[in-house]
Amino acid sequence: MSTEATSRTGRPGPAPGALLLCRADPDSVAPVAPLLRERMLLTRAGQGWSVLVPEGRPWLHGEEPVDRVMTGWATALAVGAPWPVLALWWDADRGGYTLASGFRRPVGYIWLANGTPAGEDEAMRTFAARLALDPVLDVQSLDHLTNPDPASDVRSRLRGLLAVLTRVGLDLPAGLAPGEPADRLREVARDRSDAHPVEWEGRPDTVRGELEAAVGRRLTPWLPWSGDPKARALSLAQMATGLPLAAWGLRHRSSGWLTAGALLLTHGALGLSYDLTHPRD
Predict the structure, then answer these.
(1) Strands 50-54 and 17-22
(2) What is the rounded CA–CA span in Å between residue 235 and residue 222?
(3) Do residues 163 and 256 both lie within one domain?
(4) Per-residue pLDDT at 226
(5) What superkingdom heads the lineage (predicted)?
(6) H or E segment and range at residue 260
């Protein structure tokens, strides 16, 4: 595969690629990642961070843009886990990020291929707040990324973003860098001794274990089998949120948003069915 692609303007640019950064150790991410039903590689990315390197089939072999896919995947992972998920993506025209955390609305920023900012400044401040970054030093560094800079292209902008996150433990393995094509990223990840593949096995009896591993002990009362009243309220909220997301993804042929909606519907349906078949005293 070529490391370059042709943009809409006819000029060559980086081939589409993406990374999913999770603010959690690989042991916490591994049980949840298969719910995306996509082939990926998982490896450590610093203290308290992991990175998922996707194969990239939706944007390499389909017509769906990489940013839409990654936003859906980040959202799907975040609603099923108590840690935030940061999606980095790029193609021949643009690059950017989406940060998803829980049920909150995802926040993101975009740069054009030549590094021209094309996002809202407020998004950077929300990004810093949700990741508990330094409200002075880190926010100043992020604000710099939203200012015009003829010497910076989209790759350097994304690398600047990652440089800020090194202050909170992120340390991406060498070679997993913005601007690299998907096949090159997977090659680098595959060569790491701690990397392992993530694939959906589709076994119904694994759902409960995956959800328990995802949320941890602090959020156990929200799980369907906990017997807590909070669980039913959460299940209803998940179905109410998941249905329109799945419908939108289906209508727009977006596998990322369809996955997010389907995951919410699955969690919600599991909770309601358990509640009905196991009435509380």
Answers:
(1) antiparallel
(2) 9
(3) no
(4) 47
(5) Bacteria
(6) helix 255-277
pLDDT tier for residue 31 given thresholds of 50, 70 and 90: confident
Rounded Cα distance between 129 and 167, Å, is 14
Q: Note whether residue 149 is domain-resident.
A: yes
What domain count does the chain have? 2
Q: How many angstroms separate the CA atoms of 52 and 23, rounded?
A: 11
Least confidently predicted of 78-82, 95-99, 156-160, 270-274: 270-274
Shared-domain flag, residues 12 and 45: yes
Domain end residue (candidates: 166, 197, 228): 197
Q: Which residues of 63-96 are buried (b: 16+ CB within 10 A; e: fewer)?
A: ebbbbbbbbbbbbbbbbbbebbbbbbbbbbbbbb
Alpha carbons 114 and 131: distance in angstroms, whole number: 27
Tally of CA atoms within 13 A in the half-sphere of 75 that contains its CB = 28
pLDDT in tens, 84-138: 999 999 999 999 999 999 778 899 999 999 999 999 989 999 999 999 999 999 9
**What is the amino acid identity at position 249?**
G
| 240 is a domain residue | yes
Task: Report DSSP letters for 2-37, one per residue.
Answer: -SEEE-TTS-EEEPPEEEEEESS-HHHHTTTGGGG-
The pLDDT score that the predictor gives to residue 38 is 86
Rounded Cα distance between 243 and 248, Å, is 9
Q: Which 3 state secondary structure label does DSSP give 273? A: helix
Give the pLDDT confidence of 182-212 residue by residue, as tens digits. 899 999 999 999 999 987 665 444 444 554 4
Tell whether 70 is covered by a domain.
Answer: yes
Q: Are residues 96 and 186 in the same domain?
A: yes
Do 64 and 49 form a contact (C-beta atoms < 8 A)?
no
The verdict on 190 and 144 lying in the same domain is yes
